[in-house]
Amino acid sequence: MNRQFKQISAIYTRVDSGKFDMEEAISHQKATLSEYAREHGLTNIRVCSDCGFSAYHETRPAFVKLENDIRHGKVFVFVLFDLPRLSRDYIIISEWIETFLPRYHVGLHSVKEQITPEWPIPLALPIAALFGGGR
Fold first, then answer.
1. Tens digits of residue pLDDT in 15-28
2. Contact 19, 53 (CB under 8 A)
3. DSSP SS3 for 19
4. How far apart are CA 106 and CA 71, in angstroms?
5. pLDDT tens-digit profile of 33-58?
């Protein structure tokens, strides 16, 4: 039996436990990113959320599942509200953008930074600037 596989447009949301109303913050991210995805013609949308996890925590449950889905070719595009949802470490962000996502042919959209899959490379300097140039 030959089943056709349809890749997903993965929306990732995250807030840490320091947020006063975590559920409201996650809901706002989901609504903003879902609207963004529709406006940009992204289909087969799946929202992955980590509520109450710091960006320094590398084993966030939804993030780990999303990373595995990317590795297994299930994801076509990755959509974030902003780059710090991914990590607070600009080196990790650079690795994802310059190495990990391209290796699996996954496009990146980051709404706040206005990054799309067509965004020019190299990214190391602009990403470092977002974090004050250091770790």
1. 887 666 888 889 99
2. no
3. coil
4. 10
5. 999 999 999 999 999 999 888 888 88
